[in-house]
Write a structure and sequence with these properties.
2 copies of one chain form a homodimer. The first copy, chain A, contains 13 helices and 11 strands. By secondary structure, chain A is an alpha/beta fold. In chain A, strands 7-6-8-5-9-11 form a 6-stranded mixed sheet, with helices on one face. In chain A, strands 2-1-3-10-4 form a 5-stranded mixed sheet. In chain A, helix 7 links the parallel strand 6 and strand 7. In chain A, helix 6 packs antiparallel against helix 13 and helix 7 packs across helix 12. Chains A, B: InterPro entries: DctP_fam (IPR018389), SBP_TakP-like (IPR026289), TRAP_DctP_sf (IPR038404).
């Protein structure tokens, strides 16, 4: 990992710094943005499209963001390296994809049993979260901005119900990130595979279970045709998407364009939450009509997962000071927030 | 009401249309914005301040919004009329203040047992809510934009606990809007008074109970010193604030400035939710430490309130076609959303 980073940094020093540099000359600013999503994908690519459109409108056409969908210029998961090396100006992707580079990214992505969207926003904007994230990004020559929050993601699709802790033993499940680290400790064989491969793997019993996103995107893949049990949320309560600039591209922008981009990113961020809400609700009704059974993991499973999270956090904190620092900020903010969320929003949902 | 509106419209025809008109000449655009809040008020005035600052930054200083705090140019609740008549360009205020002008505004403000913030955002941005609101605004020569959502507000402060429905009979409570109409049907003497008067009225037993906002703003007033019981939310789950332009002021802005203002308003909108979340959580901890008892209204009280809401809605719908139209859109969207919110977010909060 270290060697690779060194090579990236060396590459950056000689990389052509892109069109932003022309800003100071008063010419049109053209930015290249790669995304990790296919064209026309709701919630994810739609957020990137909206952002680019708004930036164009607000600058009266003076700033133009050209979008490169997954694979059209950079591989879907190659966007971080391409921006870090200054080959393109920015990308739109999901933060947890980079936890292999530095486990601290998984904290900014949202964690199991962690903050819900409003808590995450409060941490990012009023609790120092965004500053910490940018401090981490600076080590990789990138400058992150909020790029969307999906809100609640579901616990995943299972072919057989999980009635007790022992049912997890030997289960083969596709799940990434901290959720996977937790389930591994409980005997699950966790695997990673790209989104497009999951359906067939479930159908052919290569895996027994998989998480994906939430009702709208899950319905469009058709998981309900190959797995009947749909579990409620625990491991991704508020997953973060991001617009991430190369630091030199960012620094080269005049202040009014930086302001336009930052405000547009914050608008796009909440628009993703709104679009998720708007699309998930009717999709869930549709899934229920098609016979999907919604279940919540039993208390002993959740208790074991919480205990395992504590172990994972202790291990990562010992290995990685960046993780430790991010986790301490995140978890102490959550500790302060969660009683109010339960008393305010939680009680209201019970009352309504 | 009708006569007054006629006079306003007549006045508008001759009112000087403000500085926006200078935009086409390429000069600096100066906009006058009145607010309903005192200077330095967190959550409410801070949102207006943030919006004005961001608009200035994004336009590179070409657009300047001058803020007039409550009473400094226009009375706090006179902002709607002043903007409607074209005396100033825009205001920042809360939507439920105008339900006396047209009861349909109370729907866009958020209703008892109604949508939570993400549902409201989904309705506004993806469910036709904002378009309907602007259709209503056009009747008053105003163009509304999102201006903040407080998220969950609390049910209010009570000197004695409400243990059963009969305890409401004869209770004197300060509460506005649809919440007041509901409680009136259950025998509560509802009264309205400005924020600054509530504390003394409670202290001197002029009233037995009052709602205000949520922990952060409630703590700063000090209600916990004169009423011990703090009830959880039911009547204001997601109260809307608004930036509202005079329609001619809005139409006079070049498209890039309209885009800057719209995106800034959407960023400011969610920033208020984040600021509320960030401030309410520690304030609630503080209140609990000071001996406040948090209670939830008993099931029979909530059932009676839901029944009364049905009656209020039927009455208003019969009287006011604007209300009927807004309610039908709002309530059918909520009906589609609420099961997902409970299954996704609600179950997660129970699991966490």
């Amino acid at each position: 990992m270290k060697r690779r980073e060194f090579i990236q940094k060396a590459a950056l020093a000689t990389a052509a710094i892109p069109a932003v540099a022309s800003a100071s000359s008063g010419k049109k600013i053209r930015l290249k943005m790669a995304t990790s999503w296919p064209a026309s994908m709701p919630i994810l690519q739609s957020t990137a499209d909206y952002f680019a459109k708004r930036v164009g409108e607000m600058s009266g056409g003076a700033m133009e963001i050209k979008i490169y969908h997954a694979g059209s210029l950079v591989p879907p998961l190659g966007v971080f390296d391409a921006v870090s090396a200054g080959q393109i100006d920015l990308y739109h992707s999901a933060t947890y994809y980079w936890s292999g580079k530095n486990s601290a990214f998984s904290v900014f992505a949202g964690t199991p049993f962690g903050m819900v969207d409003n808590e995450m926003l409060a941490w990012m904007r009023f609790g120092g979260g965004l500053e910490l994230w940018r401090e981490l990004g600076a080590k990789y020559n990138v400058y992150p901005l909020l790029g969307g929050n999906t809100g609640i993601q579901m616990g995943g699709w299972f072919k057989k119900p999980v009635e007790k802790l022992a049912d997890l033993k030997g289960l083969k499940m596709r799940i990434p990130g901290l959720g996977a680290q937790i389930l591994s400790k409980l005997g699950v064989n966790t695997v990673m595979m790209a989104g497009g491969e999951i359906y067939l793997a479930l159908e052919r019993n290569v895996i027994d279970a998989s998480e994906w996103v939430a009702p709208a995107l899950d319905l469009s893949v058709g998981f309900h045709k190959v797995a009947k049990y749909y579990y409620t949320a625990w491991h991704e309560p508020a997953s973060t998407a991001e617009f991430v600039f190369n630091t030199k591209s960012w620094a080269g922008l005049p202040p009014e364009y930086q302001a336009i981009i930052e405000v547009a990113s914050q608008d796009a961020n909440v628009r993703m939450t709104a679009e998720s809400q708007a699309r998930n609700a009717p999709a869930m009704r549709d899934l229920l009509k098609q016979g999907v059974e919604v279940k919540t993991f039993p208390a002993d499973v959740m208790a074991a997962c919480k205990k395992a999270l504590g172990e994972v956090v202790a291990e990562e904190s010992a290995k990685n000071p960046d993780f430790k620092k991010a986790w301490e900020s995140y978890s102490s903010f959550l500790e302060e927030q969660k009683d109010w969320t339960k008393l305010g929003l939680g009680r209201y949902l019970e009352t309504r």
